[in-house]
Amino acid sequence: MDKSSIDMPGEPRIELTQRNASALMDVFIRAGLVLALALLCYRIFAPFLILMVWSLILAVTLYPMHQSLARRMGGRQGLAATLVVLAGVVLILVPTTVLMSSFGDTVRQLVHDVQNNTLRIPEPRPAVAQWPVVGERVFALWSQAHTDLPALVQSLQPKIGELARTALGVVAGIGGGLLMFLGAIIVAGIVMAFGQAGTRGMRAIFVRIIGPARGAEFAALSTATIRAVAQGVIGVAFIQAILVGLCLLVAGVPWPGVLAAIVLVLGIAQVPAIIVTLPAIIWLWTGSDHGTGAATLYSILLFVAGMADNVLKPLMLGRGVDAPMPVILIGALGGMATAGILGMFVGATLLALGYQIFMGWVEANPAAARAAMPGPQDGPPTAGQ
């Protein structure tokens, strides 16, 4: 065949090149406009991002209870969501407000006493000096704080000043965190009222992004992970922290809000709360003014509250959380450092969810599944070997 019959004429070739260039330019312009729109939407939505994520977590966690209540009320989704929100405010927000108020008062009083030289440090016991590694240093520092606290404060002034500013910032953030939690649970109620349409929408989004083969599975995995982490780990820790904090507050133990916050962190890290409640029980018998009957009653309450996770976990955790505990702990601590108290819940849930989705994607690879299967050389040796 003659080559001239294969080559395109000059004019059609130039026209085709111009059409391709024009189409490519259209693609770039549309992509730029879509990117600009996405950035503008994110900038507008960014102030509400933590609030909406926390609302979504609450809605997904409380949705089964909402549906059960709605069925008993003849399918009235709005009324059921309202009752769930009111119950959450009464059972969670009110005790949390009391404990966080106590925490804030403790921090403010401590800063005030240090600044006005009215803080009194008890004398250390000689046994403190016998502690391994740090005993002598702790004993010397403690003794100086007991005998001449102003001089110690003066020597540590830069660090104490920075610590005081941080503590006051935490106190100031408590009110904002409680207001955000109130807003989140209200928004969660609105989301639950339209939960059926939201479920279909989220499933459609997962199918669109991941594909019809795995979209519905990943949507179910996301929902199960959020509920498992929120209920089985963070929910248990939060409920136990409230119980212990209220018992400490009623018993008159010093710093109940601070100790409740410690119980919350320990609960997320899967460390028994008895580490906090046992010293409090010892203080009731050695340092408080309670009589024998009152000390016995408060000791029983603190012991039961400290062991409450053994009852709550089977009820709320079910099969357990598939994500490793270090993933949850890192997510909680990182979220708390990024966004405060609410960030602790959001960070742990999101990191565990990301881990589950990623590991589900890895395990879905047929090549990885075949590589993980034991080969003939991996089995037990035969008699002839």
Can you characterise this structure?
This protein has 385 residues and is mainly α. The protein has a domain at 224-361. Helix content is 80%, strand content 0%. Helix 9 runs antiparallel to helix 14 (325-363). The longest helix is centred in the first third of the chain and has 39 residues, at 77-115. It is globular, with a radius of gyration of 30 Å. Residues 379-385 have low confidence and may be disordered.
Number of strands: 0
Structural shape: globular
The biggest beta sheet reads:
none
Work out the helicity level.
over 70%
Quaternary organization: single chain
Distance between the termini: 68 Å
Radius of gyration (CA) equals: 30 Å
Features:
385 residues, mainly alpha, 15 helices, 80% helix, globular, disordered C terminus
Task: Briefly summarize what is shown.
By secondary structure, this protein is mainly alpha-helical.
Q: Which SSEs are present, and which pair or pack?
A:
Layout: H1 3-6, H2 10-45, H3 49-72, H4 77-115, H5 135-147, H6 149-155, H7 157-193, H8 195-210, H9 215-251, H10 256-268, H11 274-286, H12 292-306, H13 309-316, H14 325-363, H15 366-372
Helix pairs in contact: 3-4, 3-7, 3-9, 3-14, 4-7, 4-9, 4-10, 5-6, 8-9, 9-10, 9-12, 9-13, 9-14, 11-12
